[in-house]
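Repro:
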Amino acid sequence: MAELKQFRLPDVGEGLTEADIVSWRVKAGDQVTVNQVIVEIETAKSLVELPCPWDGVITGLLVAEGQTVDVGTPIIEVNVGADASGGAAGAAPAAQQVQTPEEAATERGSQAPEDLVPPPPDEGGSEPGIEGTMKPKPERQAVLVGYGVKLGTTTRRARKNRPGGGRPAGVAPAGTGGNGAASGSGNGHATALAGDRPAAKPPVRKLAKDLGVDLAALAGSGPHGTITRDDVQAAAGQAAGPAQAPAQRTGLAGGEQRIPVKGVRKHTAAAVTASAFTAPHVTEFLQIDITETMRALPRLRELPDFEGLRVSPLLLVAKALLLAAARHPMINSSWDEDAQEIVVKHYVNLSIAAATDRGLLVPNIKDAHTLSLPELARALGELASTAREGKTQPAELSGGTITITNVGIFGIDAGTPILTPGQAAILAFGQVKDAPWVHKGELAVRSVTTLALSFDHRIVDGDLGSAVLRDIGAMLTDPVRMIAWG
């Protein structure tokens, strides 16, 4: 029997209080199935796709794209058990795509909304999405993909062709002209491999949305036809036309722009402010000759164990920091204010500061101290790729114990990095450049870099911070020390 239910915004991470609606994957009148992705949201840490907890027909989208909503807020209404082809009662007309919770409640009369995520299934039951794609028992609520259950491969049914490229009517973001970034064509025979949504990664979709580019009108130049940032920027340039070329060449054009503080930027601002005014920071600098480390990199790349892996200076910097933390465990610790204790971690979840289209993210490699050098190279590569694609999950952003920030990729020699909250130290790795250096008593041109170590002075005294920084520098000056101290 059909029943109207509301899906409420869940807490997809620890302590989440709000999230932004990035893009809807469905519209009113669409048939949906359990675990079909219906919306993409942006939390303070990552982009997350939310699945539907029910089978039924969408009767209304309660929140517009770009809106920030609190956890627990109704965001979509579903006529559970209804069939779109049968004209089920409660299906919303096409003109009414977005409703407020109050409007939806008025239409339903006194019917009470359901809670967001259904409770876990009974013990011993089966859940969809787990290995074997078993169907749930009758009268049971299905477990959603991504909510507490480790899942296997799932298949999402292709959506029907929808006018306007699949974006809910009346919800087009500013600057898209109503087309939106998630538009597409599709037909009645669409498959999971050939759906109505253009192939593009979340950061590219956001860029297209910001620039007012219709992704459905683009032919992707990336692998398998994926739309890239260059494709979007080229389309935006063509749309601007020659008349706007002079404006692009000028510097400041006058006026002001106000950018809402939300998502990753809001989280980062709160975190660095709390860190800067809670932990007393001290930063020490060390300039070193890194020539031998740079010479070791090509030799590592030739080894079979590193085939297909990115071998960069950051790899050996990370290895040196891991060994230094093993030699000086107090550097890998945290301050427990409530208990008035120093918590020394005898494991290293290595955090790497990553600049992304969404802002600064600091994901971490769990138990990095247990990894071999090839395994560490693979983990660093996966971490960077996931961050660039906007796929970093909340679990990957929590639990870090010590951080590296690579400011050298921006052509910067050094900086005074702010501690990642809950950590005692952060190492900044500056650019590697040729510079005059006294080597074996003679002036020579060598590869030189600057290391900067910021630490929490409540935990780390100057002698300990200096010892850690000196050890890292010694290993990068002479990589053989990594073998001796490892």
